[in-house]
Amino acid sequence: MIHTVGIVAEYNPFHTGHIYQIQETKKKTGAGLFIAVMSGNFVQRGEPACIDKYSRAKAALSSGIDVVLELPYIYCIQSASAFAHGAVTILKQAGVDAISFGSECGDLENLKEIADTPVNPDHLHMSLKQGMSFPKAYSLLTSEMMPNDILAVCYLKELQNSGIEPVLIPRTTNYLDETADGPVASAMAIRRMLKDLHDVSAYTPMAEQLAKAHVPSMEQMWPYLRLFLLTAPREYLASLFLFSEGIENHLAACAAQYADWNLFLNAAVTPRYTASRIRRTLLQVLTQTTKAEVSKLPPLDYIHVLGFNEKGQKWLHDCRKKEMHIASRFADIPYPYRTMEYRASLAYASFFEEQQRRDLLKQEIGGAQRVTLSSEG
Fold first, then answer.
1. pTM
2. Cα separation of 329 and 367, whole Å?
3. Rounded distance, CA 239 to CA 248, Å?
4. Within 13 Å, how many C-alpha atoms sit on residue 131's CB side?
């Protein structure tokens, strides 16, 4: 019997496709409680979220999610396997019965077969290009795997021997679609439409809020990032998290040539370094996150609550009786994680004008939000 379902999401922004996933999961499982583990103010693509995490959490809580938990920064900005590990670790602590995720291929058995192999999911693209294939999964593996399928494999690896049931919901759009076609648009398409000042009200309940918001981009920070790459000692760059394989030399060389962010990024992309990998690496410059401090992080044994509705509040109350480590306030987050999260908040807030910057930082330490739905009175 499935009572509680977990969903790993970024909600960047929350849109009609996410509502579809929640509704379809409820039909499949009959679950009464939905818990989302959501990326904070930076997302796995290595970019600032298009709108702050509390606004995204509120939209989710108004559309079928009961509790929103934050995926710590250090997991948000890593490759698929680390991203999945952090999220599933949190959902295991939350005691969910099932985890729902989207998939482009829609074939759970194929994805399970791949998850059972020893291959590193982060290297699936490269493995497939080198001709690797697996029995019964040939039809999937002979084509390039899409991002949500790779994440699905990572979730399934993390769920092995856990007793948590995977619930697959076929995607109605491609994650990489940059245009809207039909009632559901991908988050990428919505972000592109926002950039082009198009109306997105048909695709997201956050449309009015997004229309008024400043959408941050890495391009804003390029002058600072470029200066840092060109002036910081190479040994210091090499000490930052995700700087490996001599990438600091490669990025510095490209930075010396290009004053334009997009030209720099295009030049920096190689078969070894994807655009996402480069953006994630540069985020460590913004947050000054070092390999040494990451290596000393304690096990992830807490859940940080961003928001909840009435049903979620009751769940949280019951969880406290079980002595679950719940961080409803920022000060409740274990110190090593808290210091890293605050630097991430400082970095994100720096994309905005001073008053909004202050408001975002105040919100960070203000604690979880309760969202009251109209049916709650």
1. 0.91
2. 4
3. 10
4. 0
